[in-house]
Amino acid sequence: MTSTTAMTVLEAEVAALIVGALQLEVKPDEIEPEAPLFGEGLGLDSIDALEMALAISRKYGFQLRSDDERNGRIFASLRALSAHIEKNRVN
Amino acid sequence: MGDISFLDRAPGDVLARRGAVPVTAGRYLADVAALAARLPDAPYALNLCADRYLALVGFGAALARGQVTLLSADRSAHRQRELAGRYPGTYAIADGVETVIPSILAGAWGGGEGENFAIPEARVAAIGFTSGSTGEPAAHEKPWAALVAAARAAAARFGLDDAADQATVIGTVPAQHMYGFETTMVLPLRAPMAIHSGPHFYPVEVAEAIAAAPGRRVLVTTPLQMRALVAGGISGVDAVISATAPLAPSLAAAAEAAWEAPVLEIYGATEMGSIASRRTVEGEQWTLYDGVALRVEEVEAVSALVPGLPEPVPLADLVEISADGRFRLIGRRGDMVKRGGKRASLAGLNRVLSEIEGVEDGVFLAPSDLEENPSARLAAYVVAPGRTNADIVAALRERVEAVFLPRPVVLVEKLPRNELGKITRRSLEALRDALPGEGGP
Predict the structure, then answer these.
(1) Average pLDDT in the B182-202 region?
(2) Is B209 helix (H, G, I), strand (E, B) or coil?
(3) Whether residue A47 has pLDDT greater than 90
(4) What domains are defined for chain B?
(5) Mean pLDDT throughout B154-171?
(6) Which residue of B86, B184, B361, B436 lies most exposed, with the fewest beta carbons within 10 A?
């Protein structure tokens, strides 16, 4: 198991994807793997969610959906998002 | 003053689709009656439903009980408390979102067919909100007659008035945003068309709704989502309606080519509702809805005379009116900025920024492509010794909508104020360009 702070290879890749797609100020390795992406953490909003969905579908070949409960989980953190990508990726 | 019926649909008409399941107008009225019977005696119902059909049942039930629906696409606890404080006796009609005020769970419990009812035409059916210049939301009352007149005009304009060829509207805009409210909550009550209940946020969900809808499919969306849907390879769209931000002609052309469908754009605002439309690829001129007129008040100031609204409504944009009555937009009045369908005043944002503890001076800067470019955001230049970017953003988050949170926040030693104390856009851009690297520390 990974520790709470060290990033896996996929997490680093997803962090870079987010920072690139959203032109965030932070560096990919500065994103806390377990901090929330929306609201308190990185402060992303719904426009960002759409941009991320596009970037994710292009790179990993699957579509995000807005089932509320699951979305809360997917975007809970970089770690949760990466786990979701790992499970659903086609590419 | 007379009454206008709530529903103008044949009982067997399909008014909504939940997934692939059609809901008739008669069944809808039964659902409205069943929910209305469970509502408390209260003056205001805050409609928080995410499911578009349940939102529509909630709106109808509140109307049936003589209650005013408060429309807020912002479902946050903060907004719920704010509205409940401002409108005493407010309760929420919700379908899963966490509520912090008294609430009723929306549902579709009707059996058989319900009864239509009549509504006094001047009665306020709903109140929409815009961000006022002070940060406190400004309220805009919608009499029933105004909603009905706008729906009638829109149905005629967009070819949604043909009972023999009923369309399904797939809306990606929240039902509680004024544009989404008019097109997906009022239109199905008054025009022969159905709405799809959603959700329609991500491209795959829109694709599924399109696949589930027989007949014509009309996509009601925003430039941001249209861009994602074009990129997402959606097909089967027969017409597109866009609003909330200027649609780039290049995107309109790309969407028309991808879907072989007309892309129409609505001009409107929460204060006045939709008042004009155009086919974006045909040029920049807007054609007013039937019944709407513009009135030149003074230099640069134009008001819209909208059927059903008691007063002329000042436009937030500068317009140039042609001899044929059409008009084009030539700029935005005042200091309003728009992003993600929401408006804010830069002066209001600056005031919020300056009130943060530790902030000595600060100013927001809007890039010129803020409305067209999804990745464009406001920036903030801040003098706040001892505070970090994260401190500033955290403090702003409590008082500013997420779409207006600045990215980047640039900490500077002082702002380039001139002898009048004013900061020009050029001096800020010069300051930004002189900073090392991107975004400061």
Answers:
(1) 95
(2) helix
(3) no
(4) 3-289 (3.40.50.12780), 337-434 (3.30.300.30)
(5) 95
(6) B436
**Residue B304 and residue B437: Cα distance in Å, rounded?**
47
pLDDT at B438: 46
What SS3 state is found at B126? strand
- Probe site for chain B from A17, A31, A32, A54 (most B CB atoms < 10 A): A54
* pLDDT tens readout for residues B316-344: 888 889 999 999 988 777 677 888 878 88
Confidence of residue B299 (pLDDT cuts 50, 70, 90): low
pLDDT digits 0-9 by tens, B223-256: 888 988 998 888 999 999 999 888 889 999 999 9
Longest dimension (CA), chain B: 73
- The domains of chain A are located at 9-88
What is the value of pTM for the model shown? Answer: 0.82
Q: Which chain A residues are closer than 8 Å to B408 by Cβ?
A: 25
Question: Distance (Å, rounded) from C-alpha B243 to C-alpha B221?
Answer: 7
Which of A 19-78 lie inside 8 A of B, CB atoms?
Answer: 22-25, 38-40, 43-47, 49-51, 53-54, 57, 63-68
Residues A63, B204: C-beta atoms closer than 8 Å: yes
Of A52, A66, A69, which to mutate for an interface test with B (greatest number of B Cβ within 10 Å)?
A: A66
Q: Hey, are the CB atoms on A50 and B407 less than 8 Å from each other?
A: no
If you search the block for the tokens 């989404």, which residue do you land on?
A: B180
CATH of domain A9-88: 1.10.1200.10
Structure-token pair, residue B6: 């709530």
C-alpha B356/C-alpha B391 separation (Å) is 10
